[in-house]
Amino acid sequence: MKKRLLLIPVFLLTVCTVSSQTLEERTKIISKSNPTQIERLEQRLEKNEKERQSRISAYLEKNKISLRTVSKDGTVSELVDVIDGQPIYYATYNAGSARTMRANTLFSGGKLGLELDGTDMVAGVFEGGRILDTHQEFSSGGDGNSLIKVMDNNIKNLPFNEHTTHVAGTISALGVNSGAKGIASGAEIHQYSWTNDLQNMSKFGRDGYLASNHSYGLDMSRGIPEWYLGAYDATAAYTDAIAYTYPKYQIVFAAGNDRNTYTTYYPTHNKSGYDLLTQYGVSKNTLTVAAIHEMNSYSSPADVQMSNFSNFGPTDDGRIKPNISAKGVSVFSPISTANDAYGSKQGTSMSAPAIAGAVLLLQKHYKNVNGDYMNSATVRGLLQHTAFAAGSSMAPDYRFGWGAANLEDAALVISNNDNTALVKELTLNNNETYELEFEADGSNSEYVRVSISWTDPAGTAIKDEIDSRTKVLVNDLDLRVIDAYGTTNQPWRLNPENPSAVAEKGDNNVDNFERVDISAPFGKHKLIVSHKGTLVDDKGSANPQDYTLIVTGPNLKLSSASIESEKTSNASVYPIPAKNTVYVSVNKDAKYTLFEILGRQIASGSFAEGENSLDVSSLASGSYLLRIDTGDSVETKKIILE
Question: What is the pLDDT of residues 386-405, one digit of tens each?
């Protein structure tokens, strides 16, 4: 039948000198200060600021230029003074995390025109220290409100902490210092302690939130049993259970930074840096994040440079972990030593929050286009599907995972859904097969990519076994793509017995993300999604498995008949193409939102039941997306204007 559609946790920060200043230390310093001296300084600073602003205003008026500019790549430049007639500018050349994964193309002024930030979004930050909530990067207005909300009594009595503040800033800093602007700038941060993280993660998911960051893990320097390395232990299983219970909640964990120090603690565990992931980082449904250097441009996998500390996979059962890579070297962000203090740090602690922020941006964009937030399986799928290939080939490996995160392409896939790309959240029943035909044509350097991702029930925890190859995947879905030549293309897989080997194609029976890549695609293709054994739920009872299908490729033509047959339409749009007027027929009153093809909103309103006319005479020729919300369902229709 075919389906219609307690081991000691530590900061994952590389070894460096940390001079964290506690509240008690700052209070002591303040008590020894001279109030008269402070007042005099403040008066001088106020006078200087007025003079600086006067020079800037005069220069802008004389030269008729903008105070602030944003280039096509999202780089912000701002006039900050005029000295002897010479304009002085600041630019965001320190904003490497955003640039490395092309998040800046989603920002205000970015080339995609999406104007995205973290406003109205919430990220959970689980840590061992307290965020400096009074930092200027977290001040959400002149009323003294902060983006930081302490949700856990265990946090309230902890000192402010550089690492924690830096992590939070990487997610949501407002950009008062433009080089420190967070990936999801302006997002609210709900802070929890790592002391009782699993229960608080469950609470966070239960409350309907979408993403949390965890930049901590086991302290290998204090000693842990060797079998923990790569093992799917009880903590990993509990983490998967939380993710399965709250299917829209994406948990993000740092991979760890032990690659050049682990032999000190485990001299016999010499695997060239491989097999170092532990606990949460081994979970199936988390995003485990590796740390790479900044990447200003991309033309080949060699452009993505691995840090000298980031932990490699695999998991003991051979899954492709870490999942994704982001900048984790020399990351500039707010720190806790003062309300206007900043610092550069390195570690997977710095790369993980970049991905947590990315999850929020993609969720926001997806909701803008589709009217609802996506499942965590979808956001994992998008990040792994669109990643910049890294390492020695176009395939995944146990160092970079699927490669460097590429938010620009991920956002474009969302924008072009059902047009030149496909993102579908589906359900596979027992004994069912899903098929979809499409066409694609491209050169040798172009690829069709088809992927499936799903949130798998928790597997059986492993204990006291070194390098157990026992598979922990519960529901084994399979993806195949038959090309125009009749060749059946299989997904990528890796071999834990030879972790440095290049990936091969074959039956992947361990991962809950599968991707098929076909180079130089030609003509008709058919994808098939099936499964092995019996699909079950978290109780072990037979039950359908939700999953996400993503298809991208050059000159992609999707079978509209097969797509439309999967859903009952409550609206129709005609004619296509249109000139000055588009007619929209709805079977009940509805609200509409009109977007440019890349997702920027340009109009909104309402339709009455029956036929409605929409004046589009003021719009330029091209393609647009019309989202129609009847209250019962949300549909997105493509409009083409001549």
Answer: 999 999 999 999 999 999 99
Tell me which DSSP letter residue 226 carries. G
DSSP state of 439: E
DSSP E strand boundaries for 463-560: 477-482, 488-489, 492-493, 504-505, 513-519, 524-531, 545-552, 557-558
pLDDT tens readout for residues 492-541 = 999 999 999 999 999 999 999 999 999 989 899 999 999 999 999 998 99
Residues 197, 241: Cα–Cα separation, whole Å: 14
Distance separating alpha carbons of residues 445 and 413, to the nearest angstrom: 19
Structural domains of the chain sorted by starting position, each given as residue range(s) with its CATH number in brackets: 23-91 (no CATH), 96-415 (3.40.50.200), 421-564 (2.60.120.380), 571-641 (2.60.40.3080)
Tell me how far apart the alpha carbons of residues 515 and 503 are, in angstroms, rounded to a whole number.
12
How many helices (H) does the chain have, and how many strands (E)?
12, 32
CB 510 within 8 A of CB 473: yes
Residue at 505: amino acid letter: K
Query: What is the number of other CB atoms lying within 10 angstroms of the CB of residue 575?
Result: 12
Picking from 182, 188, 184, the residue whose alpha carbon sits closest to that of residue 170 is: 182
Helix (H, G, I), strand (E, B) or coil at 283: coil
Q: Report the C-alpha gap between 321 and 281 in whole angstroms.
A: 8
Residue ranges of the alpha helices (H) in 69-118? 96-100
Rounded to two decimals, the pTM is 0.77
Element (H, E) at 561: helix 560-564
SS3 24: helix
